[in-house]
Amino acid sequence: MPEYHPGLQTFFLPLREGDVTLREGMERLLSIGNPQSEVPWIVRVMENPAFNVPPLSLFRGRVTLQQHDCIHLLLGRGTTLMDEAFVVGFTMGSTKRMRSSATELFGTVAGHFYPKAYRFPPLACRVFRDAVHLAAISNCQPLDQVDFDALMDYPLREVRRRVGVEEGLLQAYYELEAARHPKIAACRRLVESKTAA
User: Fold this and answer.
1) How do residues 117-148 score in pLDDT, each as one tens digit?
2) Phi, psi (deg, nearest 5) at residue 155
3) Helix, strand, or coil here: 7?
4) CA distances from 91 to 7, 82, 193 (A)
5) What single string gives the DSSP state of each residue in 114-172?
6) CA–CA distance from 142 to each of 2, 30, 42, 97 (Å)?
7) Largest Cα–Cα distance in the chain?
8) Which of 97, 82, 175 is nearest to 136 (CA)?
């Protein structure tokens, strides 16, 4: 199985870069991203809407790879495993229909059965659970229902406004995440980018 492109460990378009359009952000991300064909079957089964059949349908918020990439940009997250955990969790939680038992089961599968390059380490599993809960209290639209194609030429700040993603809520959590995990670069940069602004 191919490994992640090295750029996926450093890619990051922080919340403060809200003037970048969704299309520009996607072009940057796609220049380093892995194609759908390289996504392992277990990840596709767990996260892709093509597999939204019982009993897998208990995992809410399934999205295509393109939607998933747009959500990375919407949430101001990079593409490390900590970021992946947050993006998947927030997407699921935004449906307001993700049960606690489903959250725990998904975390177990992603933390133990995903291939190593995609597997959530224990701290990422906590970030995943936090993100599910954070999205559940957010006023944002269900992210699996958003037509991102219609929003491609809007700045990310405007896309967030239209979708109802609250930057203040995200930033408050990112500060908490960075404080909990000060030795993890993917968490630390969420706050460093703010102080650098």
Assistant:
1) 999 999 999 999 999 999 999 999 999 999 99
2) -60, 150
3) helix
4) 23, 14, 23
5) S-TTTPPPHHHHHHHHHHHHHHHHS-PPPGGG--GGGGTTSBHHHHHHHHT--HHHHHH
6) 32, 24, 24, 10
7) 47
8) 97
**Beta bridge mates, 155:** 21
- Token digits of residue 191: 């706050």
Percent above pLDDT 90 for the chain: 83
Distance, CA of 98 to CA of 87 (rounded, Å):
14
Per domain, the residue ranges of the chain are 6-196
| Whole-prediction pTM | 0.92
pLDDT of residue 34: 66
Pick the closest to residue 120 from 10, 129, 44 (CA basis): 129
